[in-house]
Amino acid sequence: DDDDDIPQLSSHTLAALQEFYLEQQQREGMKTSQGFNQYSIGSIEEDWQLSQFWYSDETASCLANEAVVAAGKGGRIACVSAPSVYQKLKERDGKDFSVCILEYDRRFSVYGEEFIFYDYNHPLNLPENILPHSFDIVIADPPYLSEECLQKTAETIKYLTRGKILLCTGAVMEEQAAKHLGVKICKFIPKHLRNLANEFRCYVNYASGLD
């Protein structure tokens, strides 16, 4: 029978595929509805090929709150490869702070002048208007769990910050984080929208509210 040669999807695979398409339709429906917020987490979907994993809403809120307190009134905040914290900060519509997002993914250019294209392979390749030590706090989440990625991102962080650093990365990077940035692990444990295989932690170099 010729039909035997036609590949068939299993019922489980077919159901998963239908669920995926349904979710996609719902997201697109959200984007065209009046109540859609371009800054909400998930408004730009994760791209796993770019090693993107968004924080949970609670984690993003906690880190955003910490950044605002650490930056102080009128403070400047830089989010390096940490778009969900940037989005949460923008949701606050804060008048007492300003924020920039440094990101490789050009989809975030929808955020206008606050978007700065950033490739950690070229850590100091930044626009001329981004002056050294011009941010009160830098929040960074290097895309890969490698010392090379952390070391290069650390160059960017040290160039940008006036002193305060909030780093989010794997627990396995604790030694390298201390070595390259002088940061210590916090009690607060960040969560993601999807569970990651690697244990994730926050690190700071100042007295924070994350302990």
UniProtKB/TrEMBL annotation:
Gene Ontology CC terms, in alphabetical order: cytoplasm
Which reactions does this protein catalyse? Answer: L-lysyl-[protein] + 3 S-adenosyl-L-methionine = N(6),N(6),N(6)-trimethyl-L-lysyl-[protein] + 3 S-adenosyl-L-homocysteine + 3 H(+)
Query: Domain of life of the organism in this record?
Result: Eukaryota
State the signal peptide span: none
Q: Which GO terms describe its molecular function?
A: nucleic acid binding; protein-lysine N-methyltransferase activity
Q: Does the keyword Transferase apply?
A: yes
Which InterPro entries does the UniProt record give?
DNA_methylase_N6_adenine_CS, Efm5/EEF1AKMT1, Mlase_EEF1AKMT1/ZCCHC4
What Pfam family is a match, any one?
N6-adenineMlase
Q: Where in the cell is it found?
A: Cytoplasm
Which Gene Ontology BP annotations are present?
A: methylation
Q: Which UniProt keywords apply?
A: Cytoplasm, Methyltransferase, Transferase
- Name the record gives this protein: EFMT1 methyltransferase
Origin species: Ciccaba nigrolineata
Recorded name of the encoding gene: Eef1akmt1
